[in-house]
Specification:
188 residues; SH3 type barrels; OB fold (Dihydrolipoamide Acetyltransferase, E2P); five-stranded antiparallel sheet
């Protein structure tokens, strides 16, 4: 058992039959009454962010979780298949726990968070940026770099993102997986 004095960002706790990761916390000592801790927590089961106030000294159980590097293999009706980079074991993950499934490309390295006691995957975090090739977009216009207008571009994974008018088919771009937006063109 642990108490509120053990709080730190990224700590995973078991609370209300759920696994919650502490996003941020603040210890508060008011002029009157007992001290307490305000927390912002993310549920690992459904991804929702909630706030909760713990009175200082509250007891809770720290969940044992482990992050492992995996390589994306393929997708079928059962889910997404990943291979552990060290042991070569395969694991199947449902789409709901992957941070940005439209940008998954075969061979991409991701980090999967596992609950160590049950060996169940809790979340799959992709890199912040991925490089993908454009398979289709309308032809670009030379010299059209000053305006802030965008067009649709289909990527090799099937995802569609908005790109500037000067980007052409066959070029590689960097995509921000957190927002799903174009970041920059990848140089040769």
């Amino acid at each position: 058992m642990a108490s509120t004095s053990d709080f730190k960002n990224g700590l995973t706790i078991e609370f209300n039959d759920d696994l919650l990761t502490i996003i941020e916390f603040q210890h508060v000592k008011p002029g009157k009454g007992p001290a307490f801790s305000r927390t912002k927590l993310r549920s690992l089961k459904n991804g929702k962010v909630l706030t909760h106030t713990f009175t200082n000294g509250s007891k809770f159980t720290i969940a044992r979780v482990e992050r492992k590097r995996h390589q994306y293999l393929y997708k079928d009706d059962m889910g997404y298949y990943f291979m552990d980079s060290e042991t070569f074991e395969q694991v199947t993950i449902p789409e709901e726990i992957i941070s940005a499934p439209p940008f998954l490309k075969e061979g991409l390295e991701v980090e999967i968070l596992f609950h160590t006691e049950t060996e169940t995957p809790l979340s799959c975090d992709m890199p912040a940026y991925v490089e993908l090739e454009i398979t289709y977009t309308e032809p670009g216009e030379r010299g059209n770099t000053a305006t802030n207008t965008f067009k649709d571009a289909k990527l090799e994974t099937g995802a569609i993102v908005k790109v500037p008018l000067f980007i052409n088919e066959g070029e590689k771009i960097k995509v921000d997986t957190r927002s799903g937006t174009y970041s920059e063109r990848v140089k040769g």
